[in-house]
Amino acid sequence: MKTSVNIAGVELKNPVLEASGTFGSGMEYSEFVDLSALGGVVTKGVANVPWPGNPTPRIVETASGMLNAIGLQNPGVEVFCRRDLQFLKQYDTKVIVNVCGHTTEEYLAVVDRLADEPVDLLEINISCPNVKEGGIAFGQDPKAVEAITRAVKSHAKQPVIMKLSPNVTDITVMARAAEAGGADALSLINTITGMKIDVERQKFALANKTGGLSGPAIKPVAVRMVYQVARSVSIPIIGMGGIACAADALEFILAGATAVSVGTANFFDPYATVKVAKGIEDYLMRHGCEDINEIIGKLAKEA
Fold first, then answer.
1. Which residues contact 150 (CB under 8 A, 6 or more apart)?
2. Do the domain assignments include residue 273?
3. When you count CB atoms within 10 A of the terminal residue's CB, does the N or C end of the chain come out lower?
4. 132: domain CATH number?
5. Tens digits of per-residue pLDDT, 84-104?
6. What is the number of structural domains in the chain?
């Protein structure tokens, strides 16, 4: 039975990854999960210099999910290369580095620094605020999406995955813009902007006021967006948003995702990724499917 999938020429032994920001760079979870059992490890966002992140409180639970306003806190690309990449090299898995920045130049600085490092794929987080354009996220303007994609592609030595923001009117417009800019693959969805208020204290639950909603609450939205994008572009999709079990992952795969990322579930079950991978294998056996590629996008291909 074949569970391997191909993303932009990079073969993953199975379609299960974890979502950036929910797994560190694997060190925290390596005592629970054999990282070699995953198709790949997606690192936390990496910037050109250390980012302190937002003030606390930065995380709050909601019904069927959570809000986070971490602010992409990270130690910067130099520490990442010296510490995290050295750690990941010992595992037989693909390394996907999530890249963040406030300007095109910041993204390119990280992409250039990673050019000769043992990195298999780059995932570009375009939900970051574009400080040169009044703070609107790169991913909320199709012209900005195409421009940042084209710029990154002109520098990148590795295949480029553009991670799309769901906080837009039409996700397919953004997907086509990324494809036009030369993206090799797409990740979707990132978190949905939300808010929680503490009514007893009559204050915002997050210091940042708003945060990114993730978890089971957003899964129906994410599956719908993956389906729409799969019917709009010809490049591979990595689907994510509320995946907690194999059945959740298979919804994304049938809707058009070649691979999937498990995010918030890692916080309440550190074994979630390997359980999802095993559950997909069991599903394929139960349905007499010899190759997972037979079901990828099965519903997206229907008229």
1. 181, 182
2. yes
3. C
4. 3.20.20.70
5. 999 999 999 999 999 999 999
6. 1
Give the pair of three-digit tokens for residue 240. Answer: 């994510």
User: What pLDDT sits at residue 139?
Assistant: 94
CA dist 260 and 140 (Å) reads 23
**Catalytically active residues, by annotation:** 128
- The kind and range of the H/E element at 237 are strand 237-240
- Nearest 5°: the CA angle 109, 112, 117 is 125
Question: In angstroms, rounded to a whole number, what is the distance separating the alpha carbons of residues 185 and 96?
Answer: 12
Terminal CA-to-CA distance of the chain, rounded, Å? 28
pLDDT (tens digit per residue) in 227-283: 999 999 999 999 999 999 999 999 999 999 999 999 999 999 999 999 999 999 999
Q: 168-217: per-residue pLDDT in tens?
A: 999 999 999 999 999 999 999 999 999 999 999 999 999 999 999 999 99
Burial class (CB in 10 A: 0-12, 13-18, 19+), 1: exposed
Question: By CB neighbour count within 10 A (0-12 exposed, 13-18 middle, 19+ buried), where does 106 fall?
Answer: middle
- Measured in residues, the chain has a length of 303
Structure tokens that stand for 79 in this block: 């520490």
Residue 303 in domain: no
Nearest CA among 223, 131, 232, 219 for reference residue 176 = 232
* Percent with pLDDT over 90 in the chain: 95
Would you say residue 134 has pLDDT above 80? no
In one-letter notation, the amino acid at residue 105 is E
Sign of the Cα pseudo-torsion (45, 106, 88, 246, in order): positive
86: containing domain? 5-54+71-194+213-294
Mean pLDDT of the chain: 96
Q: Are 281 and 27 in contact (CB under 8 A)?
A: no
Distance from chain centroid for Cα 262: 9
Q: Is the pLDDT of residue 133 over 90?
A: no
- From 256, 242, 280, select the one nearest 22 (Cα to Cα): 242
